[in-house]
Design a protein that fits this description.
The chain is α+β, with helices and mostly antiparallel strands and 137 residues long. Helix content is 31%, strand content 13%. The radius of gyration is 15 Å and the shape is globular. The structure holds zinc ion. The site of zinc ion has 8 residues, from α2.
Length: 137
């Protein structure tokens, strides 16, 4: 399976995501670092480089996610998969308030928040500032 993602596919994935990280929702225009194209199911777990397995992703989320696809949570005996931007609706799994913190509605969101570290203090502050400026919806 090829890791190469053609530029036309990269552009399609970015536009489909409205140029926002599909996990933490930060706009690419407000990120200091260039965004990545994430393999939702990593190649090593059998994922493909087709658009339906790709997500637009900030560098922080992508580096924290790595090739992981699931994690263990307290009180769960089996791994809980991460949020899949292609098959899950963000608002069904997460909510955000004016503080900038992201809260889980589901165990899938809880697993995703944990491993991608969506509520790192710097991320919360950045989202809070964007919310105040009306740049984060
Ligand atoms: Zn992100």
């Amino acid at each position: 399976m090829s890791r190469y993602i053609p530029e036309t596919v990269r552009l399609f994935v970015a536009e489909r995501a409205n140029y926002r990280c599909e996990y933490c929702r930060i706009p690419a225009a407000d990120s200091f670092f260039p965004f990545h194209i994430d393999h939702i199911v990593s190649l090593k777990h059998g994922g493909s480089t087709e658009a339906d397995n790709l997500a637009y992703c900030c560098q922080i989320c992508n580096l924290n996610k790595g090739t992981d696809i699931a994690t263990y949570l307290q009180n769960h005996s089996t791994p809980i998969r991460f949020f899949n931007p292609r098959t899950d609706a963000w608002a069904d799994h997460f909510e955000i308030d004016e503080t900038g913190a992201i809260y889980p509605r589901t165990s899938i969101a809880e697993a995703t928040i944990k491993i991608l570290d969506l509520n790192h203090p710097e991320n919360i502050i950045e989202r809070r500032e964007l919310i105040k400026e009306g740049l984060f919806s």
